[in-house]
Write a structure and sequence with these properties.
Elements: H1 4-22, H2 26-29, H3 40-54, H4 73-84, H5 90-110, H6 113-117, E1 119-122, E2 125-128, H7 129-151, H8 160-170, H9 173-180, E3 187-194, E4 198-206, E5 209-212, E6 217-224, H10 226-233, E7 245-249, H11 251-259
Helix pairs in contact: 1-5, 1-7, 3-4, 3-5, 3-7, 7-8
């Protein structure tokens, strides 16, 4: 099946990133972000490299060398693409971005069912090209927000792609509430995401497993805006660094939940 909805969301993020980039000065491109070692430009360079790979183009032959923030082979490959573009002006990286995403959208719009059904290794495990695209919406939108947050140029915080990202991250909440925070049997944790993307996530431990949508004995409630949610869930900030959350009820349990919120690899 052709994932028309996913392609449309991805195109929206691509367009928003292009518009943001067109407004930036060279100094803004070089502004550090919450991602260790990465500037605003580095975030876009990473996305350029990934989209080139997904289009079947050759990866850079450049090797970045050791960096303290590289944790795994995927991180090393990402860093090669980023480092290869570090000395470039931001406008040149943006031009490369605009070229590759135009090519990507043309490919995706012209592809058939078989193209999207091809098996692919995704960041969450084996899947298909369609599955990978579903994750690309999250990844690209998260990096857009990394760029905007660093610059104080907030935008594109509501709509299809932001909602898509929050909903994908919500899938991991049972692991956070049950396994990581050790919520007791029958206990419920309520997470209120207050906006711009609004969600109410009720998670209860039933027979040793946390389940979303099951009502129980509410032990703790946590409230946060959706930007705080994605910073915590995406490992951009710790529970002590993020100030946009509050807790009620068993505050010790609530703190364990928020302290273990990082859902990204």
């Amino acid at each position: 099946m052709i994932p028309v909805d996913t392609i449309e969301k991805l195109e929206q993020v691509f367009s928003s990133l292009s518009a943001l980039g067109a407004s930036l000065t060279e100094a803004q491109w070089k502004t550090p972000t919450q991602l260790p070692g990465w500037t605003v430009q580095d975030n876009l360079s990473h996305m350029v490299g990934t989209e080139r790979t997904m289009e079947g183009l050759a990866a850079t032959p450049h090797r970045s060398g050791d960096r303290s923030w590289i944790k795994n082979p995927i991180g090393a490959a990402n860093e090669n693409e980023v480092d290869a573009r570090r000395t470039m002006p931001g406008a040149e990286v943006l031009a490369e971005w605009n070229e590759i995403v135009a090519q990507r959208i043309a490919t995706l719009r012209g592809a058939d069912d078989a193209y999207f059904a091809v098996e692919a290794m995704t960041p969450t495990g084996p899947g298909t090209r369609a599955d990978f695209l579903h994750i690309r919406v999250l990844d690209c939108w998260m990096h857009e927000q990394d760029m905007r947050r660093a610059l104080g140029l907030f935008g594109h915080q509501s709509g299809p792609a932001p909602g898509h990202t929050v909903d994908r991250l919500i899938r991991t909440i049972p692991i956070v509430v049950g396994k990581r925070a050790q919520t007791p049997e029958g206990g419920t944790v309520v997470i209120e995401i207050t906006g711009p993307v609004e969600r109410r996530v009720v998670t209860t431990v039933v027979e040793g497993r946390a389940q979303i949508g099951v009502e129980g004995n509410v032990l703790a409630s946590v409230r946060m805006d959706s930007d705080t949610f994605i910073q915590l869930a995406g490992g951009r900030a710790t529970h002590t660094e993020a100030t946009g959350w509050t807790a009620e009820g068993d505050t010790s349990l609530a703190e364990r939940v928020v302290a273990n919120f990082n859902m990204m690899i």
